[in-house]
Backbone:
């Protein structure tokens, strides 16, 4: 079977399975099946040739996984975010382009050390530290499996960061100039409306708090003042409709608050500044 025929068959299978971008996903998977020997721009010239047996077998296995709605990033084991590729697994949330709004906002602030709560793949923390050589960072998560992925990403990308098992601030000591987080913010009532790629393949604990989607922000707002240096900032990603509720939580905790929108004009990040340090 030629590459073109294999692609056509894969597109038909993925379309029948309800995949949103069957043609794009099929091409990405075929390129990955070839491995590092083939660059993206070289794929077109190989399509008219018969697929090597090993490539065909890998491609068919990946198409089967994608037809079961497993995300492409989990199948290939990586996802591009900011300026690097990050390893992803079923133990981590897939880094998404909209989260880059948070990274961009953080890089517009002055800070030397940063705490990333619920670090997952480490994508936010590692991106920040890579862009600020000499800065320090700690990433926490309640999942040791996720922390292993984050540590591996930091090592591969060449960033020095600390990672620690912690339920929000439970095992965190000291103060930071900046706290960042992309916490589980989907309400349990909204879970059934998610795509199969998210609902069935990504870790539920990274998606929802099992309640109204605001419990993480309550914990972060309540503890931020005790872990920030004077004038420190907190940047939290939010759901598109959560701006008012999350802003109110941080204002009640004594912060100055603004909401940052993404490229589609949706509320995406609540940015809070704490002028006063809390005792403790």
Residues:
């Amino acid at each position: 079977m030629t590459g073109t025929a294999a692609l056509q068959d894969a597109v038909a299978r993925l379309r029948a399975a309800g995949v949103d971008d069957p043609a794009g996903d099929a091409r990405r998977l075929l390129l990955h099946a070839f491995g590092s020997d083939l660059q993206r721009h070289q794929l077109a010239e190989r399509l008219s040739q018969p697929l090597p047996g090993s490539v065909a077998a890998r491609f068919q296995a990946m198409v089967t996984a994608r037809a079961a709605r497993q995300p492409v990033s989990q199948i290939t084991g990586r996802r591009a975010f900011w300026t690097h590729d990050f390893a992803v697994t079923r133990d981590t949330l897939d880094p998404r382009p909209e989260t880059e709004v948070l990274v961009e906002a953080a890089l517009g602030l002055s800070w030397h050390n940063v705490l990333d709560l619920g670090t997952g793949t480490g994508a936010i923390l590692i991106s920040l530290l890579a862009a600020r050589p000499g800065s320090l960072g700690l990433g926490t998560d309640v999942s040791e499996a996720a922390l292993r992925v984050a540590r591996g990403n930091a090592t591969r990308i060449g960033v020095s960061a600390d990672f620690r098992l912690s339920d929000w601030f439970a095992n965190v000591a000291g103060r930071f100039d900046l706290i960042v987080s992309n916490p589980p913010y989907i309400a349990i009532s909204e879970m059934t409306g998610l795509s199969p790629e998210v609902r069935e393949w990504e870790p539920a604990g990274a998606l929802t708090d099992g309640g109204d989607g605001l419990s993480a922000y309550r914990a972060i707002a309540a503890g931020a003042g005790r872990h920030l240096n004077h004038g420190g900032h907190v940047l939290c990603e939010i759901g598109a409709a959560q701006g008012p509720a999350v802003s109110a939580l941080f204002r009640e905790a004594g912060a100055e608050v603004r909401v940052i929108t993404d490229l589609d004009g949706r509320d995406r990040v609540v940015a809070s500044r704490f002028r006063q340090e809390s005792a403790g």
